[in-house]
Amino acid sequence: MLVLVTETASQKAEEFGFHPGDIVQEWLWDDDVDDSIRAAIEELTGEDLVDEDYDSAVDGVIIWWRDGDDEDELSDTIVDAVAVLGDDGPLWVLTPKPGRKGAASSTTVQNAAKTAGMNAATPLTVGADWNGIRLRAFGKGR
User: Fold this and answer.
1) Is residue 142 pLDDT above 80, yes or no?
2) Do 17 and 110 form a contact (C-beta atoms < 8 A)?
3) What angle do CA 112, 10, 82 make, to 5 degrees?
4) Model's pTM, two decimal places?
5) Of 58, 65, 96, 120, whose CB count within 10 A is highest?
6) Burial bucket for residue 139 (CB in 10 Å: 0-12, 13-18, 19+)
7) Distance separating alpha carbons of residues 139 and 65, to the nearest angstrom
8) Is the pLDDT of residue 2 over 60?
9) Which superkingdom heads the taxonomic lineage of this protein's source (predicted)?
10) Do the bridges between strand 60-64 and strand 24-27 make them parallel or antiparallel, or are there none, so unpaired?
11) 65 with 104: CB under 8 angstroms?
12) How many angstroms from the chain centroid is the CA of residue 116?
C-alpha cells in the first residue's frame, strides 16, 4: 500500500500542475518537509525551488503548513504568494496527514483560503505523510 501512496503526486509531480521550466516558490520550509515531494517537483520542472524571498514572478507555489501555526499567518502567506504567482498558476498548501505530528485541519486551511479570497479543494495525498490542498481564486474552476 505504501507504494500506492508514494506514487501519487510526490512521484508524479505533474499532478500538481507544474510543467518543465516552471519556477515554483516554496513557503514555510522547515526540516520536517518531505524531500521526495521537493525533489519530484524539481525533477519535473528542471528548476530548483525558490524560497519566499524570491522577488520575481513565479509559475507555481507550495506552502508547507502545520497545526499550531497561526491561521491568520496562513491567510497572509497565501495573499503574499498570490501576489507573485502568475495567472492561473497552481498554488498548494501541504499539510501533515491526520494522525501525523503537525496535522492541520482542512477546515483551518479552508478558512484561511476563504479569508485570502481563495477556494480550497479536497485534500489529495501527495506523500507518505503529507496531504496537499490546491487553492484557486473564487470563480476559477474546481
Assistant:
1) no
2) no
3) 35
4) 0.87
5) 65
6) exposed
7) 24
8) no
9) Bacteria
10) parallel
11) yes
12) 15
Amino acid at 62: I
**CA 71, CA 59: separation in Å to the nearest integer?**
25
* Residue keyed to cell 508547507: 64
pLDDT tens sequence across 23-51: 999 999 999 999 999 999 999 999 999 99
d(CA 42, CA 123) in angstroms, rounded, equals 22
Q: Which of 41, 50, 51, 49 is nearest to 20 (CA)?
A: 41
Domains of the chain are: 2-137 (3.40.50.150)
- Measured in Å, how far apart are the chain's first and last C-alpha atoms? 28
Q: Is the distance from CB of 58 to CB of 24 less than 8 angstroms?
A: yes
